[in-house]
């Protein structure tokens, strides 16, 4: 048994979202404020309501007006002395819901007997809806109307008091501005939500399950005659444990023995966790067995010896008290005794320490020093603590040790759901990778678990770390994407994309992209936009161009990925699924009309491009003359129904230059980024100190002879030139900020900035008022 997917509705930004879960580890990724935390929180709210109660702000904001209107209708009916029909239907479309869709084998049907929709159901997919709804509409109505009446009476009293203080005022003073709770039904529920709302479960019909449409899930509608399932249908079915993002490691806390308690769930020092684990699974005083007898005897012997010593120590003190007349003949006599508990041995700050090897001065011995827990690096404390928490979760689920006393194997829930939020907090990059690779194995390290499918573990992790994401296969990634108001709903919402569907399982493209992204550590899954560049020179210089010339763009969350034009198109399925705004900075890669050999760019020569990205992705054609004259619209690929998604290609274009020995302007046709940069900055490169490409460019510019001659010399130099060395020489320029950015890159960066500004607007109609302004063309 395992959870196939969730359908979340009316919870914060998750208006109507389907989230597929892997049968093992699922990773939630996405940019900031995309809904990852909301998805983790909704699971806590519904599956652990005692520890994580609902708040009014959990209701999606677009439903607040309807709730306020319902309250106003109740007040109006009271004023008109009308009878109010109290039914749940007006609430249904606003209530937070969580649909759990399980896959259940035939032999596991006894676990889900309360959820089976019909007598014909024989296993497979099974759904249950958890809905946060009013407990009793009559009591809610009465409490709300009573609170409104009290608020109105207070306002009347305030006005009467003001008039009494100014009886002769003409005209009478205006009523005071006075805000008294509750102003509306939403305001009332902000303080009384948990009193009047509860979670109820309903059985769902697998036959009515509908696929998502236009980025939104389509949860099935419950018939008006649906009755809630009695009791908690998930009790004995799912065990839930979680580690939240705010852990507070390194601070001493009092942790209750209950492993599911809020304090324990919030995290604590390793010594506190060890005490909790010992108390629950190892304490010999709880259900002792023959192995514990020796420990219990030792504790009792120590207690007797300590009592004897205390009696002797306090004898003089008690004798002095007796001299004061107490105790008398009939009074009870005081005695001192101790009560030792095994767990007391762990109740101190040095219960956990770290050994440090030290070589003595004479080299003869190797004494060991011990440092307290707080003196170890916080990152390693965190890793050890988190791994220990996972071990505790596993053993609590499997009733290891003393936790199994009085229980049978049948008491173990068939499904264990573990939620970990942002494990990268306080973890170094390498440690993050270790954690995500080992976490699931730790949760399955039990003789009854391993690869067995009888008892299943599902680990759900949310993260902002590329190091964590790159250690997880695409099949386990779920990408949360923000949608502005007007695209899928009247308010900004989020949608979830199953990245296992991007390339096809086990495809050659999936293998390439997975390996490449792991090598690059790009933040594609967390950025607001991406820039794909051709080679090492662009990778080093483009970020510095952004810092020097585009301050607004520098403040945006943009990831830069180096991938040549012959491979960038392999990222197309991923970019399309992410809906990630992307600028591709690439080269023309011109080929001769006959023979197909690489040649210097020229207009009217019938040349073709060898760049697979330009040919197959954007702009989608290979004629060099057509590419050189392409306008901004031709270089941009829009996302169809998604107006915020676009991909733009930036490649070399004709440049107007004036070279040594030639009167008047000419047109240069650069071949790559390096000669385009040189043509835009002839004065800088004519005097730039350096070797390799820089020296050859300097010599070509100094020799002059016209744009064609200079360009030919640069083209020949680029055949064997070291481009990374070239970029390092350019970085050493004293006044780097005065370097002119190649025009094709400048236009691309300006386009990217304008698109990011549109993404920042959360209301879609404001960004769809008109088509984008066309870019100016070069007059060649």
From TrEMBL:
Protein name, entry field: ATP-dependent endonuclease
Region (Disordered) location: 250-269
InterPro entries cross-referenced by the UniProt entry: AAA_GajA/Old/RecF-like (IPR041685), Bact_Antivir_Def_Nuclease (IPR051396), P-loop_NTPase (IPR027417), TOPRIM_OLD (IPR034139)
CDD domains in the record: TOPRIM_OLD
Domain OLD protein-like TOPRIM residues, every copy: 525-589
Annotated ranges, domain Endonuclease GajA/Old nuclease/RecF-like AAA: 1-50, 258-469
GO MF, one annotated term: endonuclease activity
UniProt keyword list: Endonuclease, Hydrolase, Nuclease
């Amino acid at each position: 048994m395992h959870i196939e997917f969730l359908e979340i509705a009316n919870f914060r930004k998750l208006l109507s979202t389907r989230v597929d879960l892997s049968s093992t580890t699922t990773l939630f990724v996405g940019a900031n404020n995309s809904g990852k935390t909301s998805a983790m929180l909704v699971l806590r709210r519904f599956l652990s309501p005692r520890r994580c109660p609902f708040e009014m702000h959990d209701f999606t904001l677009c439903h607040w007006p309807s709730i306020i209107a319902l309250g106003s209708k109740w007040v109006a009916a009271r004023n008109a002395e009308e009878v109010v029909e109290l039914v749940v239907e007006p609430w249904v479309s606003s209530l937070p819901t969580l649909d759990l869709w399980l896959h259940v084998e035939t032999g596991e049907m006894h676990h889900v007997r309360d959820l089976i929709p019909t007598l014909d159901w024989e296993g497979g997919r099974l759904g249950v809806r958890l809905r946060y709804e009013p407990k009793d509409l009559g009591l809610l109505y009465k409490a709300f109307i009573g609170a409104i009446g009290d608020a109105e009476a207070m306002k009347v009293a305030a006005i009467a008091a003001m008039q009494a203080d100014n009886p002769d005022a003409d005209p009478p003073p205006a009523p005071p501005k006075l805000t008294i709770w509750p102003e509306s039904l939403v305001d009332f529920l902000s303080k009384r939500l948990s009193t009047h709302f509860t979670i109820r479960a309903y059985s769902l019909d697998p036959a009515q399950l509908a696929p998502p449409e236009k980025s939104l899930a389509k949860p099935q509608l419950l018939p008006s005659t649906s009755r809630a399932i009695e009791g908690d249908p998930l009790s004995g079915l799912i065990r839930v444990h979680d580690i939240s993002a705010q852990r507070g490691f390194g601070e001493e806390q009092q942790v209750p023995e209950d492993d599911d308690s809020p304090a324990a769930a919030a995290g604590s020092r390793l010594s506190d966790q060890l005490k909790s684990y010992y108390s629950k699974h190892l304490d010999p005083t709880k259900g002792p067995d023959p192995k514990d007898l020796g420990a219990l005897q030792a504790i009792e012997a120590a207690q007797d010896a300590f009592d004897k010593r205390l009696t002797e120590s306090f004898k003089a003190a008690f004798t002095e008290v007796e001299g004061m007349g107490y105790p008398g003949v009939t009074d009870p006599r005081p005695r001192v005794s101790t009560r030792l508990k095994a767990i007391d041995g762990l109740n101190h700050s040095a219960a956990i320490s770290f050994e440090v090897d030290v070589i003595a001065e004479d080299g003869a011995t190797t004494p060991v020093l011990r440092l307290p827990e707080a003196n170890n690096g916080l990152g390693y404390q965190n890793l050890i603590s988190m791994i220990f928490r996972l071990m505790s979760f596993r053993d609590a689920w499997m009733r290891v040790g003393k936790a199994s006393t009085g229980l049978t194997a049948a008491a173990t829930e068939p499904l264990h759901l573990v939620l970990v939020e942002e494990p990268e907090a306080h973890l170094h990059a390498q440690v993050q990778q270790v954690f995500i690779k080992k976490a699931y194995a730790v949760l399955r390290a039990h003789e009854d678990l391993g690869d067995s499918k009888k008892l299943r573990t599902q680990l759900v992790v949310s993260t902002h770390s590329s190091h964590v994401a790159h250690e997880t296969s695409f099949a386990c990634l779920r990408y949360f994407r923000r949608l502005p108001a007007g695209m899928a709903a009247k308010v900004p919402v989020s949608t979830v994309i199953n990245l296992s569907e991007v390339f096809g399982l086990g495809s050659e493209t999936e293998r390439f992209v997975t390996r490449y992204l792991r090598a690059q550590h790009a933040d594609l899954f967390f950025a607001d936009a991406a820039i794909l560049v051709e080679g090492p020179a662009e990778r080093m210089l483009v970020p510095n161009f952004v810092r020097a010339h585009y301050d607004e763009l520098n403040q945006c969350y943009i990831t830069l990925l180096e991938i040549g034009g012959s491979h960038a198109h392999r990222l197309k399925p991923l970019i399309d699924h992410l809906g990630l705004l992307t600028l591709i900075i690439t080269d023309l890669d011109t080929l001769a009309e006959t023979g197909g050999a690489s040649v210097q760019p020229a207009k009217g020569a019938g040349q073709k491009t060898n760049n697979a990205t330009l040919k197959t992705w954007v702009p989608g054609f290979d004629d060099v003359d057509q590419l050189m004259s392409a306008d901004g619209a031709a270089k941009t690929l829009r996302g169809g129904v998604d107006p915020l998604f676009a991909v733009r290609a930036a490649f070399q274009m004709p440049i107007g230059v004036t070279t040594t020995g030639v009167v008047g302007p000419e047109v240069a046709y650069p071949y790559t980024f390096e000669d385009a940069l040189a043509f835009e900055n002839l004065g800088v490169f004519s005097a730039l100190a350096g070797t390799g490409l820089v020296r050859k460019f300097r010599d070509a510019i100094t020799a002059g002879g016209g744009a064609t001659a200079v360009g030919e010399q640069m083209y020949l130099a680029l055949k064997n030139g070291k481009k990374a060395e070239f970029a390092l020489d350019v970085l050493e320029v004293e006044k780097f900020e005065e370097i002119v950015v190649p025009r094709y890159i400048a236009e691309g960066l300006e386009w990217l900035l304008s698109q990011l500004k549109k993404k920042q607007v959360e209301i879609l109609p404001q960004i769809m008022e008109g088509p984008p302004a066309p870019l100016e063309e070069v007059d060649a």
